[in-house]
Amino acid sequence: MGVQRSTIRAWAFGVLAFLALAIGAYALVMYGTPDHLHKQPFVTGKGSLPDLWYNILWAHAISAGVALAIGWLQFIKKLRHHAPNIHRLIGYMYSTMITIGGLTGLYLAFYANGGWFAQLGFGSLSVLWLYTLFRSLKSIIVDRDKADHGRWMVRNYALSCAAITLRIYTALAAVFLGLTDTNDTFFVIAWICWIPNLLLAELFIGEKKRTTGRTLVR
Description:
Layout: H1 2-31, H2 34-39, H3 41-44, H4 51-71, H5 77-82, H6 84-109, H7 115-141, H8 146-160, H9 162-177, H10 182-192, H11 195-217
Helix pairs in contact: 1-4, 4-6, 6-7, 7-8, 7-10, 8-11, 9-10
């Protein structure tokens, strides 16, 4: 049973890594230059917007894309144990990207499709993204608590993966419901793209605590 569970976790982690790299690369390719950014349907459908919005979107897409693409590396145990300097370097980069992505996300939330409820959903995501990063850094820098640092980073990366689930739910809404206008879907997707992720993170954290507890008892 334990071997089967480990195999499932390994496959799930592999799928997560693949999706993170794919979406991260997509963000860099499609939004990495001003020409590509201005041609995206998501952008052209917004109508007339302040010049600042385009700059903020570029910074958000690049920072969030990089964070998503490298964040999963932090959960590789061998990397943490055998190459701690690389682990810290990736952590510094990831934290910088999340800070930029979270702050720019707050600005972009005010312009989100789907009305005020969607704007609140995306705004809440950005606030929690920044808060979980703060708690993870505090736990390792101030408290020197590696276990708590890991738990908060799991929560943070689960929120980072909203970039993945948002695109999955948007595609599902188009295929199964025929809804292609995000004004019709984002009032729901703005919440379900991250709340289930966070709940799964809590389940994972709880299971890890129980497993650790059983190991200590033995």
